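Researcher: We're reviewing a set of sequences before deciding which ones to prioritize for further study. For each one, I'd like a predicted 3D structure that I can look through quickly. This is Regulatory protein MerR. If possible, include the structure in token form so it fits the rest of the review sheet.
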Amino acid sequence: MGSYSMSQVATLTGINAHTLRKWESRYTFVQPKRTDTNIRYYTDELLRKLLNVSILHRNGFKISKIDKMSNDELHANVTEVLLKPIDGDVLTALMLCLLEMNEREFVKILDAHILNKGLLQTVSDLIYPFLNQIGVLWGIDKVMPAQEHFVSNLIRQKVVSAIDNLSLPEESASKIVLFLPENEHHEIGLLLAQYIAKDLGWNVYYLGQHVPLENLKSVQEIVQPKLMLTMFITTIPDKVKDKIEEILSNTSAHLLVAGNPINLKEKYFEERTTYVSSPLELITILQEKK
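Model: Here's the predicted structure for Regulatory protein MerR, in token form for your review sheet.
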């Protein structure tokens, strides 16, 4: 069974510490356990309950009413609220699906959001913030690799399906090569870049994860792309500059670089390299260079 500090629960639920203490003193639904030194901690079960409570509270339910609900009533009300969610509710619901490994609800939420907002906005407004929340859980060692892989693969399936539904570009269209360097495996962002580029009419050569950089020279000779795009998510910052230089030594194409801002510094970029900070910026760049 997992255990969470008050500050961790506040980060994951959006309920601040003062409110948690107040609810604890007034209501029965939030009763954290105590360590031998009298420090509060919250169980997995209580975290899931507080995630549900946060959804109802944002939608106008009085805490005194929530306190009297059975678990079945709580879940029924959350399900009804999520039919027309407000900002924050969908993200919280995805967190619950992650913790419970609930594929059915996770897919239902994603499908509804994609239908209403489109894939690009869903990724920007929902999936990226959700992955950041997973990062919080990783940081406090409260998510299993299996859980992270579970939801990442569900997201991947949605993006790949959307890519497959796009029309093929003209043979004469500009070419872009997408790849992740060796030891980079988080490809959702790269898949989104593939979707954006293909949707804008580019011929996309998707090499995927863990590509040996020395292979890029042959790819350059065969494809002769106008652009290459890569991402640094987990690479140690001190290694990024060397990797960028190695990539540039193997291609004459302009290089677009995205990823974790912590890993990417302005001094790493030269005339043939552009930092891409967001999907919207990528759209602008591809439209200009097309």
